[in-house]
Design a protein that fits this description.
single chain, about 150 residues, alpha+beta, Alpha-D-Glucose-1,6-Bisphosphate, Chain A, domain 4, 8-stranded antiparallel β-sheet, about 25% helix, globular
Amino acid sequence: MEKLHYSIIIDAPKEKVWKTMLEDKTYREWTEAFNQGSYYEGEWKAGSDIRFLGPEKDGTVSGMISRIRESRPFDFLSIQHLGEINHGKETMYAEGGQNVEAFENYTFNDKDGTTELLVDLDSPEQYAKMFNDMWPKALEKLKQISESNN
């Protein structure tokens, strides 16, 4: 696993950035950088299971099986990825001897009315280059949406 770090300054209060990031409609917009049609099923509450999904060209669904480990609204969100869905087939990381601690953490810092959003995630090495391309685009879209109607 590689530890990846991204950050962006958004000219909006952290409460607005949090809501923009997590509400269904705007989540679907900013996550298009990862997969056109991305969505989630579940809740953002600590202890809740959540799935991050997106359509494949063949009509199947792929994504992540995850659990919200910590949720402190407007301050911090920690997601643990427990498995993957590839073309509709679920594979848990604990199966096949993979004992993977894969986390995706978001920290929201108030910077004089703007928000510094920090993203820290564990990535399999083969995905690092792809994420280094996609994450900055996704964060720019989140910034654009969060700053609109400010």
